[in-house]
Design a protein that fits this description.
Elements (H helix, E strand, L loop, with lengths): L2 H19 L2 H11 L31 H6 L12 H11 L7 H16 L2 H14 L4 H12 L3 H10 L18
Helix pairs in contact: 1-6, 1-7, 1-8, 2-4
């Protein structure tokens, strides 16, 4: 196996992991929605009242509307452990839940459940993998995926075992401060 081919395979494995998780798109959408709050009582561009309550200090599960509870159902068991910022992001994501098709709703719920089951370390790694794959062109991703699809299950396992482990955070040199 050539180094270039192995590099493509390693990247394909990382892309496969991201594709399977498919969770970062959900987070990116939630961040985008949460970044532009609408004042309480004001209609959004779509004409709907925003789902995120303004100036809320505590977002308990019971304070959510029935529609929000339905949209966020996979998170109900772990809702109390989420930070207020995380809750607001998930609530923002729930705003368009009723516009999704039934298969899209099922997929979103499955991905929410997967994301909720991840450890903080796994979530960090997923975020890093997502950021890395955003730098790869769509054509290159498609090519790598096609190559990966031709592998036997044994080749896929061997490739996964040979993939370098990614660090959880970049190494940063701390500058030395001069002694006074």
């Amino acid at each position: 196996m050539t180094k270039r081919f192995q590099s493509h395979l390693t990247n394909a494995i990382m892309l496969l992991g991201l594709a399977c998780a498919g969770l970062m798109t959900v987070q990116a959408q939630a961040q985008t929605l949460a970044a532009a709050p609408v004042p309480a009582g004001k209609a959004s561009v779509s004409g709907k009242i925003p789902a995120t309550p303004a100036a809320t200090t505590h977002l308990s599960w019971l304070s959510l509307t029935p529609a929000q509870q339905q949209a966020l159902q996979p998170l109900s068991a772990s809702w109390s452990q989420l930070s207020e910022v995380q809750k607001k992001k998930w609530i923002a994501l729930s705003a368009n839940f009723n516009t999704l098709t039934p298969p899209a709703k099922e997929r979103l719920h499955a991905r929410m459940a997967q994301w909720a089951a991840l450890t903080p370390k796994q979530r960090t790694l997923a975020r890093l993998n997502y950021n890395q794959t955003q730098r790869v062109s769509p054509e290159d991703k498609a090519e790598r995926w096609e190559v990966y699809q031709t592998f036997t299950p044994e080749q896929k396992r061997a490739l996964a075992a040979s993939a370098p482990k990614m660090p959880l955070a970049p190494h940063v040199k701390v500058p030395k401060t001069p002694a006074h």
